[in-house]
């Protein structure tokens, strides 16, 4: 799960940077998707810390 959280954080950050280069509604939609990816990555990271190791 740690790999998934890192990938989501990386893709979210890149998507947020790329959304500033886009015009109009597409830029807003890209920013919303990127923020969602970042929040999901943070969630996966928190869950990974709280789950017991097997």
Draw up the topology in text.
Layout: H1 2-19, H2 24-50
Helix pairs in contact: 1-2
Describe the main β-sheet briefly: none
Any low-confidence stretches, pLDDT <50, length ≥5?
none
Class based on secondary structure composition and strand pairing: mainly alpha
Quickly count the helices.
2
Number of β-strand runs = 0
From the alpha-carbon coordinates, what is the Rg to the nearest angstrom?
13 Å
What is this structure, in a nutshell?
Helices cover 83% and strands 0% of the residues. 7% of the residues are buried. The chain has two helices and no strands.
Structure explained in plain terms:
Keywords: Membrane, Transmembrane, Transmembrane helix. This is Positive regulator of sigma E activity. It comes from Alkalicoccobacillus murimartini. With 54 residues, this protein is an all-alpha fold. Helices cover 83% and strands 0% of the residues. Helix 1 runs antiparallel to helix 2. The protein is elongated, with a radius of gyration of 13 Å. The mean pLDDT is 94.
What would the keywords be for this entry?
single chain; 54 residues; mainly alpha; transmembrane helix; Positive regulator of sigma E activity
């Amino acid at each position: 799960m740690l790999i998934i959280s890192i990938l989501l954080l990386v893709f979210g950050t890149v998507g947020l940077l790329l959304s500033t280069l886009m015009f109009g509604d597409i830029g807003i939609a890209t920013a919303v998707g990127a923020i969602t990816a970042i929040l999901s990555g943070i969630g996966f990271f928190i869950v990974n810390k709280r789950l017991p190791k097997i």
